[in-house]
Amino acid sequence: MSVKSLIRVAKLHCDNFEFFCIIRGVHESSVTIKLFNIIKPGVELLLELSNGDLYTLEHTGHSGEQATFAFSNAIDIARFLAEPSPYPKRPARLRLLHPACITFGTNTYDATIVDISCGGAKFESEMGLIIGEHICLSGRMLPTMDAIVRWKQGPRHGLTFLDPFHLNVIAERTALIQKFASAN
Predict the structure, then answer these.
(1) For residue 30, with 0-12 CB atoms within 10 Å meaning exposed, 13-18 middle and 19 or more buried, which class applies?
(2) Which residue from 53, 63, 72, 149 has the least number of CB within 10 angstroms?
């Protein structure tokens, strides 16, 4: 089978970190990925698609921001390409536990970012926000982001950013957040 060209956002799991990446091409035995972060040689890598499917990878080559990885096990190429899911397709998200502040009106509250994507975030806070409320989310190493509360479940809230991140910006910022957290 020939290489199937793609441009699909996914994430790499590496050394207890998660990094955004872009799948550029896939073959039955390998995948080509655009990286936004340096990957250490010899570490176990998992590629996670937006539907949650995981693939173990072995690094086989590198050229600039692109790297080639061999799949450790045979894959179902049709499933990889279709990315089936019982849920509506959603952007790749990185799991973080990152302190943040939520501001609405003149009130500011502590919160913890649980996950983040280019277009939104999930956070935990005990404040009483209302769905549809306009807020500002800020955190160390992140810009202040205007957002709208889209859902609430107990202390967890989902936000949509009014001005989404560019993938390279969120990839860089989340890598710094994870690096800083692991150093402390």
Answers:
(1) middle
(2) 63
